[in-house]
């Protein structure tokens, strides 16, 4: 869907890279290798996004490091569009509607690093989560978002690795 609006596949992949997880950054050669594109194609898109103010850069050890400009007035909207494009919004909605007792949803792996690899790894944290039901739900989610989804069920997860996309803050009594 977003491919019809943003016709440059390279630009779309760079937007996913930087707006999926704001902690993600990259440099020209690293992005070229990761996205399997020429440095010229990456440079062109980075420059276009910089000129529009969507990315910012800093120099570190003779490398120019790029990252999302979180101060841009459209930052939150672009991030929401990117997450909708990937299917994160729909996935969380389906999980919460049908699972009820989910305390936290964490994206790990490639998508936490902004790489649109086709397989989204998700940790579901909560008590009494039913694996068989989640398997069925996973198939429905995959059909909806057109990406493979792998769920990992845990009763607790305090690791700082991954991208927390939902957290239910229960009030302490």
Automatic annotation (TrEMBL):
One biological process term in Gene Ontology: regulation of DNA-templated transcription
Highest taxon listed in the record's lineage: Bacteria
InterPro entries on file: ArsR-like_HTH, WH-like_DNA-bd_sf, WH_DNA-bd_sf
Endpoints of the signal sequence: none
Ranges in coiled-coil conformation: none
Protein's UniProt name: Transcriptional regulator
Lineage: Bacteria, Pseudomonadati, Bacteroidota, Flavobacteriia, Flavobacteriales
